[in-house]
Amino acid sequence: MKKILLTLAILCCFTVLTKAQFEGSKQIFESPKLKETIKTQKTVAILPFEVKISYRKQPKNFSAEGNKSQEESMARSIQASMYTFLLRKASDYTVTFQDVDKTNILLKKAGVLGKLDETTKDELAKILGVDAVIGGRFETEQTKSEAGAIASAVLFGGFGGKSGTGTMFLTINNGADGELMWRFFKTMDDSIVSSTDDMVERMMRKISRNFPYKS
After folding, report:
1. CATH of the domain at 52
2. Confidence band for 119, pLDDT divided at 50, 70 and 90
3. Could you tell me the pTM of the whole model?
4. How far apart are CA 101 and CA 81, in angstroms?
5. Coil, strand or helix: which one is 123?
6. How many domains does the chain have?
7. Closest by CA position to 193, among listed 215, 166, 161
8. What range defines the domain where residue 126 resides?
9. Is residue 213 part of a domain?
10. Positive or negative, the Cα torsion across 31, 33, 37, 39?
11. How confident is the model at residue 10 (pLDDT cuts 50, 70, 90)?
12. pLDDT of 51 above 90
């Protein structure tokens, strides 16, 4: 029995260490004007994310249209998950975050939803009536089939297998002039057991100490 428990303990430690190795280093940029600027900000909007899904080896029956639809769905999902996370911890922040449904409706009415890359950040802030905008991009390359990832999950005691890698960029731009105030970058694993909520939760926990609006 002791041998079994020891084996399980070693397996758990190996799994944690392996997962930590897969997590890439983070990079953070802060504008020299950041601290002074955020003192004047009260409302911040979270923009729909840009999402790019690619494959190291294109799967059978790949559909470009289906892939694009999946990217758009994930873009909305990341936006909603981030809003939920921030709303849940609203008392920890010095600003309020605009409801993402309102954000998307205002962007759609202005004819820029889906064309955010053609609009400056200060223009977007004006459309939304906010003091700053949070934007971002998530890129993922699927490197392993779902079956292979499940096999890894079984091998590692059901903790989840690595099916790909994801790169997350998160930015905050000042609404008055569109200037970049803060930027976060990190590479993460994309596990078959991780939902978009899980991914955003992991990311936000890692940046919480450096998040500019934390009180």
Report:
1. 3.40.50.10610
2. very high
3. 0.75
4. 12
5. helix
6. 1
7. 161
8. 23-208
9. no
10. positive
11. very low
12. no
